[in-house]
Amino acid sequence: MWLSKLKKTNKKEVSLNSKSIVRRINNILFGTGSYLNADALSKIEKILIEADFGYKITQELLSSIKNAKMDVNSNNIISPILSQYVKSILTPSIKPLENSFIHKPYVIMVCGVNGSGKTTTIGKIAYKYRNMGLKTLIAACDTFRASAVEQLGIWAERAKCDFFAGSENADPASVAYKALDKALNNYYDLLIVDTAGRLHTQNNLMAELAKIARVLSKQIPEAPHDILLVLDTTTGQNALNQVGHFLSLINITGLVLTKLDGTAKAGAIVNIISNHNNLKIRAIGNGEKITDLSDFVLDDFCAKISVT
């Protein structure tokens, strides 16, 4: 089958993918004289792999397509099969960000690789809770780059939240400890702890995440109450690799998905949850505005994949 010949998708193919997975499959089905012949199945497999569903899920979807009794004259043959499968995997894993906290201060630790949208996501989360009337403190624990502290400070100002930063090159765990101390002594409802944007392959920097989590738990045993991983959904299969690396060091409790407005790599999300079904999708962030944070709506996600 096509899988053994898989090559990198070029920009034109990505553009086609982003229109609709279902549309491309339907075009293949309408164009074959022998319904679901070997050539058609090979082309469908290619589309699903390009969308980063992964080998296992792709084979399961192909099996469902082959076994289904479908009307070839329908203009939307595949949508019900794909939507039902996606919903069966993702439905148990959708958990929006809390609207109230049992623990105060509630501690959210945010991590992610460079370019994932981590800093803007922190600003959006802080704005959401500040608008709910919660006293919120943002801690800048990315002390490796002065620009990172400055950028986060700008987002804290936009969100009208308090901001805590240590000196340049200070120990990130020490900054986190002092920030939580301030949150405890000044009765904050929420502390959001930023961490250094890093490649998931940088072991020494990744180990710093576990250290921050340990230090926070010394003051509040349950802290951090949430550890959110910000994922750029356009990275596809690489996003799955990132999740695995982060989970090997810290207890990621939820995902914030960014750049989900395109569906070229939509299968990656399904693939991630299928491999790590204890993870929860907490929110999505599309756009640069501070209000561009919303719950993950499964019906909307399936509709984008299935547009015909």
From TrEMBL:
Name of this protein: Fused signal recognition particle receptor
NCBIfam families: ftsY
SRP54-type proteins GTP-binding domain location: 105-307
Organism: Candidatus Xenohaliotis californiensis
InterPro entries named in the record: AAA+_ATPase (IPR003593), P-loop_NTPase (IPR027417), Signal_recog_particl_SRP54_hlx (IPR013822), SR_rcpt_FtsY (IPR004390), SRP/SRP_N (IPR036225), SRP54_GTPase_dom (IPR000897), SRP54_N_sf (IPR042101)
Catalytic activity: GTP + H2O = GDP + phosphate + H(+)
Localization: Cell inner membrane
Higher taxonomy: Bacteria, Pseudomonadati, Pseudomonadota, Alphaproteobacteria, Rickettsiales
The entry's keywords: Cell membrane, Cytoplasm, GTP-binding, Hydrolase, Membrane, Nucleotide-binding, Receptor
Span of domain AAA+ ATPase: 104-282
UniProt record similarity statement: Belongs to the GTP-binding SRP family.
Topology class, membrane: Peripheral membrane protein
